[in-house]
Amino acid sequence: MEKQEKPKNKKLIKSGQNFLGILNDIKRRPEDAARELEVSLDEINSILSGKKELSADIVAKATKIWPVNARDFYVIHDDCPQGIKIMRSEESKQSSRIMERAGYSYYEYRDTAMSKIAPFRPEWIMELCFVDDDDPKNKLVQWNNGHFLHQFTYFIGEVNFYYIDSDGGKKVAVMNTGDSMYITPFVSHSFASRNGAKQPGLILALTYGNKITGDTQQELSTLSNLGQEFALDFSTIEKATSVLIKYFREISSLSLDEISKRTDIPTNKIIEFESGKTIPSNIDLQNLAKALTANLRDLLPNDK
Fold first, then answer.
1. pLDDT in tens, 230-258
2. Quick one: 289 and 261 in the same domain?
3. What pLDDT does 58 receive?
4. Is residue 294 part of a domain?
5. What's the count of helices (H) and strands (E) in the chain, helices before strands?
6. Whole-angstrom Cα distance, residue 52 to residue 8?
7. Angle of CA points 196, 199, 200, to nearest 5°
8. Domain range spanning residue 153?
9. Which end of the chain is more exposed for a tag (fewer CB within 10 A), N or C?
10. Is there a domain that residue 47 lies in?
């Protein structure tokens, strides 16, 4: 009876091809790489052929002896290879988390279909706060300070949209199903359901970054002061790692406790990551990337 070949791991094959590209760029043959990385030629060939995973130890060694960045070794994982991604209602419900304001439940957040390769972060948000009037100064309304994301919002049900106008005055827009709005970054705003509605109001918020992200962001960080207004703070490895983690957590609308729950990383450790006091291990970064629906390389800064 003939043995059936195991199906090839496309992810490992792509990683191996990427590794070969790096070796070609720095003019190393497989035997040169094996000698300089202090591993066997068989291991290098297994990585190149897609039979073995490229280890974090080899990447760490390579970045010490070659003019390459760690993120160069991690290929983008396309989680939407067929061009379509579907999230069912039950799966969305499993991501539910309650956000409190002023000590009481204010919003319920749920994930919606999103991809690691897309810049958009759509969110399902239910307004748990009910108001009796359309007064923009209603004391039940809890305002945020704005965020560094553009936001397009589609309304379902009876929802009040509160915002600050250009003169600093508080305003309210009475919204209903089918209405929509757009706000620029850093516009202070809030939402609430109106009393009398059969059920709490709901918004679908599509947010996308004002800051440049991904490879372009990383490349701008190397251009001294030229890209400062477009990029996050990548002045040191510690700062770069911390701002990337915080950036992706905030655009995913995940609290520290929620990201801790999803990654099994203690909250105090995540705080250390975001403050730049501690650099996460490769395993921690992999867990964070998965929880944030991001590619691992997106959390890896360029080495400086």
1. 456 767 888 888 988 998 888 788 899 99
2. yes
3. 95
4. yes
5. 10, 10
6. 11
7. 95
8. 90-208
9. N
10. yes
Q: What is the mean pLDDT of residues 268-282?
A: 93
Phi-psi region of 27 (alpha: psi -120 to 50; beta: other; left: phi over 0): left
Chain length of the chain: 304
Q: What is the C-alpha to C-alpha distance for residues 164 and 168, in angstroms, rounded to an integer?
A: 6
Q: Are 79 and 226 in contact (CB under 8 A)?
A: no
Same domain, 110 and 186: yes
Tally of domains in the chain: 3
What's the whole-number mean pLDDT along residues 268-292?
Answer: 92
Q: Kindly report, residue by residue over 93-104, the tens digit of the pLDDT.
A: 999 999 999 999
CATH number for 254: 1.10.260.40
Cα 260 from Cα 269, distance rounded (Å): 9
For residue 77, give the DSSP letter: -
Residue ending a domain, choose from 173, 208, 243: 208
**Residue 199 class from Cβ within 10 Å (0-12 exposed, 13-18 middle, 19+ buried)?**
exposed
pLDDT, tens digit (0-9, with 9 covering 90-100), for 49-108: 999 999 999 999 999 999 998 889 988 888 888 889 999 999 999 999 999 999 999 999
Residues contacting 231, CB < 8 A, separation 6+ = 211, 212, 217, 220, 221
Reply yes or no on whether the pLDDT at 214 is more than 70.
no
Query: Are 103 and 163 in a shared domain?
Result: yes
